[in-house]
Amino acid sequence: MLELAQRMVFCAMVCSIYARASCPSRCECSEAAHTVKCVSKDLRAIPNGIPGYTRNLFITGNRISRIGPACFQGLDNVTNLSLSNNRITEVESHTFADLRSLRYLDLSNNQLTTIHPEGFSMHNHSLRELNLSRALYNHSAVMDLAASVRQTTLGSLQGLDLSGNGLIYLPSRTFSRLGQLRRLQLSNNSLVAVRNATFWGLEQLEELDLTFNALKSIPEEGLRELDALPATSSLLLGDNPFTCTCAIEPFALWLNRSQGRVRDDEALACAFPAAMRNVSLLAAATLTLGCYQREAGADLTLQTSYVFLGLVLGLVGLVFLFVLYLNRKGIKKRVYEARDACREVWEGYHYRYEIDSDPRLSQVSSSADA
Description:
The chain is α/β, with parallel strands linked by helices. It has helices spanning 2-22, 139-151, 220-227, 249-257, 286-289, 291-326, 328-357, 359-369; strands at residues 28-30, 35-39, 56-60, 66-67, 80-82, 90-91, 104-106, 114-115, 129-131, 159-161, 183-185, 207-209, 234-236. Helix 7 (328-357) packs across helix 8. The termini are far apart.
């Protein structure tokens, strides 16, 4: 019995030593919590030897420049992976393909410049949340991401965070393969417009955050795009520099029709011009902007121009008639002279006609000529 107890203690010690040995250097491992943390350890690559029991893997605040499929082999149980704030610049194709249980992926606060076409390919569509907040370094990364999202298998993705990336516009149909997406975060960018096919394919989208962008208005094309999101019941548009001129009238009317769908509609206000600053967009309709009054004023100006032109032409006509009156004698003389000249020409033609029509006169005329 004593020998059995000793063997059990020995096995426990061996297992304990093995468990400690299986934890990567400069990382903290907890088998009970199924968690491994490698936080701010100045790592230059994903460490080897991460235990297979790991479900929550936090490798943050390091200096890892690139990640690829070799980094996560054998980690079938990882469900939450955080790689934020690592200065990652490149994501290779199939990097996360072996993470068959992955549901949450955080790549925020990195410096992505290159995302390969199948960088986010997943074998079993397990990923539900993807955080790319403040992760895209330049415009080429935006285009790479759009191409990757269109080509990879993220059909089960429900949440996508692209906030804080300085996005000016989104390529058409960027999200066309994300048919199950429920939440899309686009806040704190520089988006200037919502265009046709920007959100094409997002039939299940419930929440759309467009706060803190550069939207001056949303034209009718963009309004049709938003209306084409049938499931979206929570739309945020606050903290945009809306310019309240006549061009914003369709958007203001749309807001009044869509109350309840735009969650922060009562907080939306004009930023420009100065006279309209802080005026609620819900009130900035036709009467407030005075668009029709301006159109009526334009019509009045046009009518006034026509009246002025008529007066000028009338004055020119009077001057012409007055000149004719002053020169009536000379004009009458010229008319008489023209009349007499025409009469002489006519009589000559008439005489020639009579000669040609009467043979006797023709003979006399010929004799006279001889």
